[in-house]
Amino acid sequence: MTNIFSTMMRIILLCSLTPFATISTAQDPIVPTLPETVSWGWFPLDKQPVITLASGDTVRIETLSHAGATQDEHPDSALGALGVEPSEILPDVIDFWNSRDRRPREGRSGHIITGPIAIEGAEPGDTLEVQILELTTRVPYGINTTGASVGVVGPSYPGSRPTDTKRDILSSQHLYRTKIVADHEVAIFSDGIQVPLKPFMGIMAVAPDPTLGDPGVTVPGVQASRPPGPFGGNLDIKDLTAGSTLYLPVFQPNALFYVGDPHSAQGDGEVSGTAIEQSLSGRFRFTLHKNQSLTMPRVETDQHYIMMGIDLDLNRALQQAVDQVVAFLVTEKGLSPTKSLSLASIAVDFHVAEAVDLTQLVTGKIPKSIFVED
Q1: What's the pLDDT tens digit per position in 27-53?
Q2: What is the CATH number of domain 9-139+199-289?
Q3: How far apart are CA 164 and CA 149, in angstroms?
Q4: pTM for the predicted model, two decimal places
Q5: Annotated domain spans of the chain
Q6: What is the CATH number of domain 303-370?
């Protein structure tokens, strides 16, 4: 677990950076999760950057899970009822909880999001490359939520019908302890089940260009954090672990990067509506690609190029993901559109990465191993 600074150290100000960044022993600036450095459920367009970086810079960013920090009940009581000791609750959780009444809520979602991080020289039409260098857990537990009214089994899910048989699923919060077993961090699901941790940030976004009526935009200028979109956001792509790279199209000057919704383990689809929600600390490198525009975010890992489609309709999301794969193969590998579609059908896996956040997200995973001359 990583809890880099005590409460006192987290408020040290280094004016040469920004009012909110501190320095780690490795000389990377650190963005802590103070009330001033986080937003609740949206991506403000006019918020003062918590730090400004040049292309190629690295930074450590701390994040908070909303689980245990946003409910009406004090965190000591809410988390204590699940078996969490007061000493195991981050001071940042209490500080955020105490700040809730001062925060706007109309048109916003529930995630706690750190940022924005400004990237010098970024402009609309550029692409921001985000390398995820390291992700570590900040506390030894995480929370998953189930219920018959949430996730893909809920009545508001597009696939649900009034005639569906009632499911025998209880509304419950499940606290899972995490620890090191045989040099690997795992979640203890039960005496006989251990789930390997693969931490990733559910939300990584640039500041969007919200249009009233778009998914998650019910208030002018406010993009709720629940639905992902071309700006990134609540992608919930479990492949975005340490060592992966996310590419985001830039919509606002200085890009204004936001990160949050930390997860330690999740299956594709996130079918209950949540993953293991667990506060994380991450180290990132940002690289700006001038005048290189994307229509949709994309991901690169050691083994795959990952394209994506995002739409309210799962079928349309799949079509978009296929279109993105074809466009990549044409542009990057020199194939014709016809041969690209053929290759997509015989070699590319399409996954429902996220199905519970209003817009549906399908990934197309192109294996690097098929390109024998690369």
Answers
A1: 899 999 999 999 999 999 999 999 999
A2: 2.60.120.580
A3: 13
A4: 0.93
A5: 9-139+199-289, 303-370
A6: 3.10.28.20
